[in-house]
Amino acid sequence: MKALVLKAHGEIDQVALEEVETPKPKRGEVLVNIKAAALNHLDLWVVQGMPGLKLQFPHVLGADGSGVVAQVGEGVTRVKRGDPVMINPGLSCGTCEYCEMGEHSLCPKFSILGEHVPGTFAEYVAVPETNVLALPKASSYEEAAASSLVFLTAWRMLVTRGRIKPSETILIHGIGGGVSVACMQIALAAGLRAIVTSSSTDKVERAMGLGAHFGINYKLKDVAKEVRELTNGQGVDAVVDSVGEQTWGTSLKCLKRGGRLVTCGATTGGNPPADINRIFWNQISIIGSTMGSMSEFREFVRFMGIKKIRPIIHRFYSLEEGTTALEDLKNQRQFGKIVLNIG
Questions:
Q1: Is residue 165 one of the residues assigned to a domain?
Q2: CA geometry: angle at 15 spanning 43 and 93, to 5°?
Q3: Are residues 156 and 138 part of one domain?
Q4: How many domains does the chain have?
Q5: Over 90: is that where the pLDDT of 189 sits?
């Protein structure tokens, strides 16, 4: 089969389209003929290499995907050959205390397609049957592929961990990225007032065109000062921060007393000044969040259907154009998701 593979850690020039062996589904697994796959910043981290990540090269990239079940392994009962499905990229053991509690992303053996095991930038991928969900009737393969990782991450961040409430005000950094746009869409659909930031005035304007109440270009204005003015000096109820060192101090300054800072990543570095005095004096909650559970996967798909939310897709590429797609992602040219058409 054709696959977009990483030959060695480094830059995007280490990624190439190659012929690799088609995987065979093991017991409890299904083989999915991928029709569409979506890029995430995670793909760039895998290319560069991360501490503790040991891969067997060539390694197939890609976490998000959707397609048709081509083959089922022994013991599979939930799906059959020919079923259109979307894939939950989070893999867990299913037997530990966390999995038994339904907290799959806390599993000690938790892993992600394309990061720890071969991924979805290929014609076929083998995954546990528990990781596939019937393709929503109103969704295309491209939309389903563009939803999985970012909306699952955003749902857990906001709903499960952040406990957002209607009428609250939320600040979302780095609008334009997949997770930040998904957070904005969920927050707006849930009745929150959303403030977004970006270094691009065009991205701020696009977000406001989609319903964001306020937008701030952080290269032109002081975000903390603007947020205080927009909230009558109170600050926001919650901040979504996946940027890290660059925005952490600002995030803390923007929160009201008793506010929550929810983080799922640190693209600019993971060791910002702690500002502990502000945290304890204002009784701020710092909340970490990673991916989500199987039940949360079903919940966000149901929510998207009820609220008629569609993922924002920036552009489509073919699998053969995969390296160009990765370059676009690296250079932050996108607003929303970049999708590969494979099938």
A1: yes
A2: 45
A3: no
A4: 2
A5: yes
